[in-house]
Amino acid sequence: MFKIILIDPDLAYLEKMSAALTPFCEHIDTAQTGQNAQIKLSQCKFDFAIIDVATTDHPSLSVVKYMKLNSPATKIIFTISDPSILVQLMLTTNDLLNIGISHILPKPFILSELLPYLQCEQAVVQKVTKTALSPMEEINDEKFTRIALNDLIANDYAIFDFYFRINKNQYQKVFSKHEIIDFDYIATVNQKKFEYLYFKTKDRVTYLSYLNSLVEKFQSLPNIPAITKVKTMQNLSVKFIEEVHASGLNPFLVAECETICQNMFSLVKKDKFLSEQLDLLQEKSYSLYYHSFLVSFLTTVACKSLQWETWDLIYKISMGALLHDIGKIKLSSNIMLLPKWEIPESLKAEYTTHTELGAKLLENCSKIPQEVKSIVANHHISNASDSLIANTSFHKVYPPAQLVGMVDSMANIMIQHEINVEKSLALLLSLPDSIPEKKQCHQQFIDAISKCFINHQK
Predict the structure, then answer these.
(1) Lateral strand order in the sheet of 25-31
(2) Complete DSSP assignment for 370-392
(3) 346 three-class SS
(4) For tag attachment on the chain, is the N or C end more exposed, with fewer CB atoms within 10 Å?
């Protein structure tokens, strides 16, 4: 017997389906709106949620995100009456499956089409303590992404399966979904001193939602160390950029990006000493994903000093900084992930097209603000006449684009030379005035970064 919640704006459908499913259910509930559904989901653990894609007042994707975080064992079945809705949302059925939808049913359907899903996949919601490693599995490395062991939270429960990578294409499951993350157990079985746990890339979107929720909680927990806050923001930003590179920007990821930027600014605004933690996070090798986080974080902190603190402006600047290199997705694989200073002379012409490619990539994405598109297109532009995007509000957008460009140069210098913010700024300012990167170093930006990152460190 199951516990099921039906979520659909059509009251007649809810009444009909509820009556049909009652003989098979221990408990059944209904909701006409996403907001009402989330209230009921917070009050009861359901085995299944059957939700229509057209759900409003907290849209269906927001309800899915809520369930993945707060009731991850609940199986989610999407119902779709009009396939064109997916086209409007720029989603495919594969996108839905990748964000944790178990099954997709076209409407109308008959009960005999639904029951097999319920009978085959009844969920069991419980926390289980791990007792032994699972057998070795042969799985392609391309199916995995990783997380540092130090970034796990003890006594939380696994929101998906975690593995040790034993060798190339060889994995051993450490925790199954819903098992308690026990560090004593990890210490016992980690004989080879692995530094990372691995999880399937298909679960990366769930991990993003989990980290976003965690950062939101940090804001009401004053005793969380600043280094933990910044490190979590780094992990969140890195995994977000990885997912964008793997899947492209769909509406679900755009919503996650907005939350990331909002959380980043909220933390920066409340804790003025967060910038001091960057030196502790310096990575010894270049990563496009870490670089994107660094540019977004430095830019967000600088915006606070510049008093660009209205949320409407801040989230657009932070999002533009986080996505500033998205055009590199379209570059050749042999240079896409290379740092700027390692690009061969023969490939520099292609490399410089990444801003234009980024602008084209976002051109038809209606959920991305025009200001973000301008930052992506123009963060390497030092003269307004060279702008790749012309619009009526360009004079408002251009300063943030130049700020992102300046911070982008600083981030490259920090990683290339393994130095802190103060030294990277000094090195950037020592460049000849004719260098394009130097032309973006406006005094107001220099003062803002000095105030936030350098004065605090002295």
Answers:
(1) 25-31, 2-7, 48-52, 75-80, 103-106
(2) HHHHHHHHHTT--SGGG-S---T
(3) helix
(4) C
Question: Do 27 and 109 lie in a common domain?
Answer: yes
Q: Give the CATH number of the domain where residue 98 resides.
A: 3.40.50.2300
- Specify the length of the chain in residues: 458
- Say yes or no to pLDDT of 38 above 70: yes
Q: Is the pTM of this model over 0.85?
A: no
**Structural domain tally of the chain?**
3
DSSP 64-88: HHHHHHH-TTSEEEEEES-THHHHH
Residues 6+ away with beta carbon under 8 Å from 374: 320, 387, 389, 391, 394, 397, 398, 401
130, two tokens: 């791990």
* Residue 389: pLDDT over 60: no
23 in the same domain as 169: no
Cα separation, 226 vs 271, whole angstroms:
8
- Angle (CA) 240-71-51 rounded to 5° is 85
Q: Are residues 162 and 95 in the same domain?
A: no
- Identify the sign of the CA torsion 32, 35, 37, 40: negative
Q: What is the CATH number of the domain that holds 388?
A: 1.10.3210.10
Residues 185 and 280 occupy one common structural domain: no
Host domain of residue 358: 219-457
pLDDT band for position 127 (50/70/90)?
very low
